[in-house]
Amino acid sequence: MIVALLHRLKKLPRAVHGWSVMMKPQVVFVLGGPGAGKGTQCARIVANYSYTHLSAGDLLRAERSRSGSEFGQLIDSYIKEGKIVPVEITINLLKKAMEETMKADEKKFRFLIDGFPRNQDNLQGWNTVMDGKADVKFVLFFDCGNEVCIDRCLERGKSSGRTDDNRESLEKRIQTYLQSTRPIIVQYEKQGKVCTIDASRSVDEVFADVKNILDKES
Ligand code: UDP
Ligand code: MG
């Protein structure tokens, strides 16, 4: 009897553990201008917390170079022009990446979604496809002046190989950011969901603030 009971108790953590199969993805949107440091800070977060980093831009670039992709050309021209790719494409890539992550490891249900949602179309697409399927916990907003953003991207452009880290594309990206992405951040601010960080400082200084926020929020 006791042995059977112990056996069942031993099994319990596994059953509880098994619950996470049904865990809803917990999402933090990471927003900020081009070069604000979203990718850099996300890498730091991943090294210190149990989050999976999904960069919408990286997913689009991977899709652009996937042989057989029907969207390669379209993505390429949107990225160079600093325009926002139609959400049908981006949301499918994000959803697939989330599903694959959770399928491979049921404990990986916390996501940093970097560089999305960037405009109203993105937000609508997210709400349509993901409503009820994922919880948006809050938005990490890396706030940084345009000049600093441009300088950082030009510096990155020396080695990044990115087709949009040049002055011409950058000016368009900044315009897109100000016209389309800032209003999304404002909308989330009104819901009290935005944690703003002064991203013009050093990586270490910014990350110290990030840590404070994650320790409080997570
Ligand atoms: N992009 C998009 N939708 C997204 C994310 C990115 O259309 O949800 C495109 C857009 O053209 C953007 C480019 O990909 O200018 C680069 O995005 P990324 O997030 O990599 O740039 P970052 O802001 O990190 O410098
Ligand atoms: Mg990035």
Description:
The chain starts with a helix and ends with a helix. Residues 9-21 have low confidence and may be disordered. It has 218 residues and is α/β, with parallel strands linked by helices. Helices cover 60% and strands 14% of the residues. Helix 3 (56-65) crosses helix 4 (72-80) and helix 7 packs across helix 8 (167-190). It has one domain (23-217): 3-Layer(aba) Sandwich (Rossmann fold). The protein is built from 9 helices and 5 strands. It has a 5-stranded parallel sheet, with helices on both faces. Bound molecules: uridine-5'-diphosphate and magnesium ion. The site of uridine-5'-diphosphate (UDP) has 21 residues, from helix 2, helix 3 and helix 4.
Q: What structural class is derived from the secondary structure elements?
A: alpha/beta
Q: What is the helix/strand order?
A: HEHEHHHEHEHHEH
Number of helices: 9
Radius of gyration: 19 Å
Shape assignment: globular
The domain tally reads 1
Number of strands: 5
Strand content: 5-15%
EC number: 2.7.4.14, 2.7.4.6
GO molecular function: AMP kinase activity; ATP binding; nucleoside diphosphate kinase activity
Organism: Sinocyclocheilus grahami (Dianchi golden-line fish)
Cofactor: Mg(2+)
Compact description:
The chain contains nine helices and five strands; from the N terminus they run H-E-H-E-H-H-H-E-H-E-H-H-E-H. By secondary structure, the chain is α/β, with parallel strands linked by helices. It has a single domain (23-217), classed as Rossmann fold, CATH 3.40.50.300.
